[in-house]
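Hi Y.,

Following your request, here is the sequence exactly as I used it, all 211 residues.
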Amino acid sequence: MTVLLLAAGPLTRQGAQSAARHELAKTPYQQAQPPWWLRPLQWVLREIARAWDAAAAQTGGAAALSVLLGTLAVLVVLIAWQVGPRARGGRSNQALHLDPETTAGDHRALAARLAEQGLWAEAVRERLRAISRSLEERALVDRRPGRTAYELAADGGRALPGEAADLTEAADRFARIWYGQQQADAEDYRRLTEIDAAVEAARPARALAVP
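Below is the corresponding structure, written out as tokens. Let me know if you'd prefer a different format.
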């Protein structure tokens, strides 16, 4: 532990502050600072504590509690707005960005190489792109630049109703990984591979011939 040594003589408030700033500027103290993302939360908590103290001093404990609960309610609403359906909707509506010259086989080969390197998020994305391009190559869905994962699930599900649930699952996994910051793993890639194989093997129901 570093000991703060002050020169002999009368200690003034300004002198004490200067000595404290000098001491806290040293490397060990700077390394002990909280990460950047934690500092806004600390600021919010300090403001809540300040509001509590002010309300308690002016109106008593019951009013202070009301102020605290109101502040917390606002925070809950803000957090829900950031991570709730509105935020998820914005993130999950991102396009798959397929290259027009890349085939489904190309996407599958790239996905396999990425999986061998343990790049699971990228491998999942390439498998979903393979599914999308395969459906286009088979003329089960139209070639549409900017198609999103959930649009793919909806379009593919109409063409192959038996695979609709799997296609939605594939879109969910993709969205959670790429826009929900969920860590991808080998299970995600294995499941996308299974869905890709199932969709590739599925055949659309033929319309009944009318005599």
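DSSP finds ten helices and no strands in the chain.

Thanks again,
Q.
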